[in-house]
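Everyone, carefully examine this protein record:
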Amino acid sequence: MHAKRKYEDLHTHKGMRKLLVEELRAKGITDEAVLTAINNVPRHYFLDTAFEKIAYENRAFPIAADQTISHPYTVAYQTQLLQIQKADRVLEIGTGSIYQTSILAEMGVQKIFTIERQKKLYDLHSVYVFKNKYLNIQFFLRRWVCRVTHVWALYKNIDHLRGTTYSSKINRATRPRRYYGNTD
């Protein structure tokens, strides 16, 4: 996501997204809210323009800071496991490309608190193309938060935790009702 980039969502992009949604449905994604969000959020906005024509293939692509944007199936599967409701509050650890964050926001969750540890990725969030559309997202840089458990204490009413990485040492008594991600 670059400040000078021209963002266009053409009929070809919408058609590719529709095909992607059908592929995800065939792979077992059944949550219509997840599929609708994936159909509505232009994945090619979160990738380098060199990948625009293949942005809707079910694979990961490189983004800044030696990170990747997840496969659409991974995004859909993780999101479906969370069983998101509109009144939910989500703590996301590992913002990355902001694609999955945008999927959650598109689903209408009440609030998303998202933490990124890579400063380069965090800096890109300042030019986030949907910052005026998804006002329910609050970004944090990890250095502002000494430990995830401190954020947890600030936001005790979190319904879901979605992480690309987090510690399995988080107190089980304070875990939200749904969480998904990789653990140590």
Q: What stands out?
A: The longest strand covers residues 160-166. Residues 165-184 have pLDDT under 50 and may be disordered.
